[in-house]
Amino acid sequence: MKINENYLKLEKNYLFIRIAEKIKDFQAKHPDRKIIRMGIGDVTQPLAPVVVEAMKKAADELAVKETFRGYEDSGAGYDFLREAVSEYYHSFGAEIPASDIRINDGAKSDCGNLVDIFDDSNIVLVTDPAYPVYVDSNLMNGRQLIYADSDESNGFAAMPSNDGYDLNGEKIFPDIIYLCSPNNPTGAVYTKEQLAEWIAYAKTHQAVILFDAAYEAFIQEENLPRSIYQIDGAKEVAIEMCSLSKTAGFTGVRCGYTVVPSELKTTASDGTEVSLAQLWNRREGSKFNGVSYPVQRAAEAVFTPEGQQQIKENIRYYQENARVISETMQELHIPFTGGINSPYIWFKCPNNMDSWSFFDKMLEEIAVVGTPGAGFGKNGVNWFRLTAFGDKDATIEAMQRFRSMLEK
Amino acid sequence: MKINENYLKLEKNYLFIRIAEKIKDFQAKHPDRKIIRMGIGDVTQPLAPVVVEAMKKAADELAVKETFRGYEDSGAGYDFLREAVSEYYHSFGAEIPASDIRINDGAKSDCGNLVDIFDDSNIVLVTDPAYPVYVDSNLMNGRQLIYADSDESNGFAAMPSNDGYDLNGEKIFPDIIYLCSPNNPTGAVYTKEQLAEWIAYAKTHQAVILFDAAYEAFIQEENLPRSIYQIDGAKEVAIEMCSLSKTAGFTGVRCGYTVVPSELKTTASDGTEVSLAQLWNRREGSKFNGVSYPVQRAAEAVFTPEGQQQIKENIRYYQENARVISETMQELHIPFTGGINSPYIWFKCPNNMDSWSFFDKMLEEIAVVGTPGAGFGKNGVNWFRLTAFGDKDATIEAMQRFRSMLEK
Asked: What's the predicted TM-score (pTM) here?
């Protein structure tokens, strides 16, 4: 048996596992120091009460023969949840029929699994910096990657290059384009005009856009798009992934959704028209069996008026943390992006320090954990990500420690 | 963008989706007829009370900041559950450390995703008949398949061929071998001696065995192995997948586990030794984020003494159904396998009918749904699968209808 040797070319450790190991070592050496974690983007506020009640009610249904549920017929998600997601899209001006939505166990799974439906010869465009899963899940299939620089010059929101991208000395155009807005890690948000430009570019080059909207709930400014489908023409070129992880504290509950519009079609080599949704449904039909019923009921509760009100309180709590971090950066005259329409603050390491060295410095000197920008790409080597998902008091305390470290 | 054209070579519909459509059409035409479903292997008994309580308790924990849990550190499953599974293995004589176990959202997902870590050039051996996911998830990657006949001559338990298998006129040996015991669809169970033979064969040909033990809980005879790891040498050649779907009624709750032993190693083309567990953990680290916390607590409860007692009542309920079906077959002198150590009964269609025709006949004449053997491979074209997962009264009623259909 031969292994898939593409795996041997990957970084040995996934970014967050490497960070977890560093924390473990530090804590073992300094058991009395209180670490404040602002690294991995994990939430800390409890689930909304209406969500917990819905999950418990569903668990009770499974205890009784008359209301017991086994397999979902399709595995695409129950209609009650797909329709709730469709209504949610409608609430901010994107019209997505329930039939174009598949429920999943979180955006990360679909983000990795979606590429199964594309040929390994496709050229993949990823912004740099980017969420490492986009890169790794394509390297695993041996796909070649090209990078669109997101840096200070464009406010960390890369725009398409009409000259193409460098690959082995040649100029080349992408087949698959990953975009994430609000961006992880930079917090930058694309405007409608910018997304329209990407959509036009994808059409010109017959590319597909994989749009990661996992942080849409953090957008506060009315004019910024929460979904790529708020822009005309997106349905013919874009797949969108979204998640309840950050929106409703579902990092441990696991539920998200992916939209593959029925309008999204391409032509096979024999000239037949192929629907990407049909390929995706076929993939999922064989390799996935749907999301836990009580989890789907919990997710449904998120989209009720009461659920929306309760989760918005949590989001405001994190936004207040983001404000505390942003203000600290402003006061210290540290260049940064994000923090307003995003739970992430992306800042330049003081004295242009290397980001892993700055990680070690913060851990050693003030016991605050962040994420080194280098983990997201070469444009992050002197940048650093902090998340606003922590406890309020801990965030304030971390920023006091941060200030004293730099003013020392 | 180019699609993965291997998808176009797949059967257009996954077996169970095709069956669902036929049922829907029939029900639309005959709204007053009461269909008895013995097709898709879905359970009908409610969850054990201890499982439901555990899930609700976990949901309550997520409602409180102090006990809230977000991401699992590793995504491999919480230690409490991995250790419970390890203890469970120990109870029937297989020693599997918790660190070799990964918790998943059901065997189907892992069964499909596991092949990502193997090169597409591997030759895959599947028994015929077999669970269609083994075939489809390899065709999706363009792998070539060879088939080991499971038929009346070997009691539907194929043994390895030392002469190799036919592929495009050549004799060839497999790199990846799928085995399922108790078998879906035939209900046949491998003995320890038979599995030892497969293990020796895999060693000789440097192949890996993917062992599907999803139905182990239905084994009643003491001497039959519930896990391939009850046989010496298995850890060096076999990965095992198991599930709580049928064991504890988790088809809608979604939880299973996969064992990749640390002893399972191979050599990369550059001569370095590679651990398959490390590759699998790397795959899952990028493409999976763990199972819902309340689901893991529910699964943990299955392995408590109280949980084991409660689920065994359900299993006995299904075993009684299997007895009813088996006795009907015996009385009608219909050749069959399974039904004793398995929830499946695999029988020969009367008058050697084609299995899809027999499916239509049963649906039209007696409104009983089964699964046509043809859906599992060429050796199933005249065979048929019934499941014992139904309601007791409905199973008795279905067998009465079946008898009258054949005695007409």
From this structure: 0.96
